[in-house]
Amino acid sequence: VTDDTFAFKQALNQNSKVWVPEGVYLLGPTVGLNSNNHLLGEDHLGVILKRKNQSNALPLLANADPTGGNTNITIENLTIDGNRTNQSPVGDSNFMGITFKKTNNSSIKSCNIKNCATDGVYLGASANAPSNFNSSITLDNVNISNCRRNGLTVISVKTLSCVSCVFEDICRRR
Q: What's the confidence (pLDDT) of residue 107?
């Protein structure tokens, strides 16, 4: 397995829909998703986006423009592995699986998010503009497990829908 970060960034910058075949893909630092990006895995158990060992304390996936905002992002049918046993988080550093800041009409569907050194999913505001809320965010059939801090952190969301989501083994500080 090699570092696939550049390939993912390039594919998402050049295409609105990126289909990912089964396999394990090492990522880090953050892969940004632009407005209208759809990241679609072949199989939610067979497509694994895994944080590189000792990677930067940044989210694995995030919307690309947390200040100006993004719309219509979909992350679907894959597993995000935060690889927390091979990270060195300090305090509440940003080792999240997915972060949305000032994102509208976006969703995470049929995904497993596991082993994050902090949060599985973080829905926050931009540091420079805390009033820039997320809105119309959907988590549908998302399983979040074994995250050290929170499975789902909600800081700023106008509308959030969680359908058939499961949170397991959260906040184990081992």
A: 98
- Kindly report whether the peptide bond that precedes residue 29 is cis, defined as omega within 30 degrees of 0: yes
From CA 44, how far away is CA 3, in angstroms rounded?
20
* The overall pTM is greater than 0.85: yes
Q: Are 47 and 22 in contact (CB under 8 A)?
A: yes
Determine the Cα–Cα distance for residues 74 and 55; give it in Å rounded to an integer.
24
**CA 152 to chain CA centroid, nearest Å:** 11
Query: Half-sphere exposure (CA, 13 Å, Cβ side) for 35?
Result: 11
Nearest to 111 by CA among 65, 70, 60, 72: 60
pLDDT over threshold 80, residue 127:
no
Tokens of 114: 């596991």
pLDDT level of residue 51 (50, 70, 90 thresholds): very high
Smallest CA-to-CA distance from 106 within 57, 148, 157, 152 is with: 157
Count Cα atoms within 13 angstroms, Cβ side, for 21: 0
92: pLDDT confidence band, cut at 50, 70 and 90?
low
Residue 37 — very low, low, confident or very high, per pLDDT cuts 50/70/90?
A: very high
Give me the amino acid identity at 84. R
CA distance 41 to 49: 10
